[in-house]
Structure of ParB/RepB/Spo0J family partition protein:
Amino acid sequence: MDIIEIPIAFIDEDTDQPRYQFDEEALQELMKSIEEIGLLSPIKVRTTGNNRYKIIYGNRRYKASKMLGKQTMSCIVSTVTDEMEIYLEQIAENLTREGFSPIEEAEAFHKLMNDARFSSSIKYLSGKLGKPESYIKNKCDLLKFGNAVKKLIVSGTEIRKDKLTEDQLLPLKDLPLEHRDPLALIVARDEMPVSDVKKIAKMFKDKDISESTKGKLLYKSGHELVETWSVFQNNRAERAKPAAAKASAKAQKSQKAAAASEAPVAEPVSQPQMAATAATAIAAAPIQVKLQHLLTAVQAPSESDLQNEAAKLDVSEKDKFLDDVNTLVEHLEQQLEEWKKVRELTLSK
C-alpha cells in the first residue's frame, strides 16, 4: 500500500462522513502531538477528479495539520469507488477511534439502513462491521430522543452531571415522548444510576397510574421519583395480600369439592343385606345384647308386603333381590344353628 505526500490544498473534507463532532480540547492535543513528533499515521483519501482528493478517514489529523500550517500530508490513496464500501470503511475506522459518539454511530447505522443509496439490513451491517444486531439496534434507539437529550449523550459508562450514557437512556426509550425526554433530562441533571432509571421507567409504564399523575411526577427530582416508586410498590404489595388470601381460600374450597366429587358413592343397601349385616355384627356383642338386637333386626315381611314389593320389581332387580334373600337365609341358618346350641347349653345348666 503506497503512501504519498499530497498538498493539503488539494484535499477536501467529506461532509457526508459519519463523524462530524470534534472535541476542541482533543484537537488541540493532537495539534501539539503532530507539531512535536509529526504525523504518526497517514490519512486515507480517494480521487475525485480535477487532481483533487476527498478524505475517507482522518479528518481530525487533516484539521490539526491544516491549523498548524502544514503544506502536505501523508496519504493512502484508495481505488475504491463504491459508496457503500467507502461508508462502511469510514464507520469501521471510526469505531476504533476515541470520540466517535453514540449518536454519530446511531445516525450512521440509520443512514445505511434507510438511505436509498444503501438500504442495508441490520443483519448485513452486523456481519460487515462485526457488531451484534442488538448493538446496532440499541444505538438506533437513541435516535428516538429529542435534540436536547441527544446533545448530552456521551460514550462510556461513567455517570456525570448533565451528561447521559447509553445505559441510562435505554430503559426510557419505549416511553411516550412526553415522558421520555423530560425524564432523560432529570436523569442527566441528578446523575441517576441505571438501577434507579429502570425503576422510574417501570413506574411510568404502569397502566394502573393515570396519565395525569404521571404528568405531575415529572415535576419531582430523581430522588423523589425513586421514593415514589418505592411507596407505590409497597402499597401494591399491601393491596395484594387480601386478594392472595381470598384466592388461597377459594383454591382450598375447590380442592375439597374436587376431593368430595372423587370420593366413592355408597350403593344403597337392601333390607335383606341390612339384616344379614346386623346378624353378623351381633355375633361380636354380649349374648343378652346379641339376642335383643337379633329379635329387633330380623323381622320377616308380611305376605301382602311381599306381593306388593315383588310386583314392583323388574327383571333386572328380581335377580339381585333373590341373591340378597339367599344371602340372608344363609346367615340366618348359620345363626339358627348357633342359637340352638346356646339353648341346649342353657337348658343343661
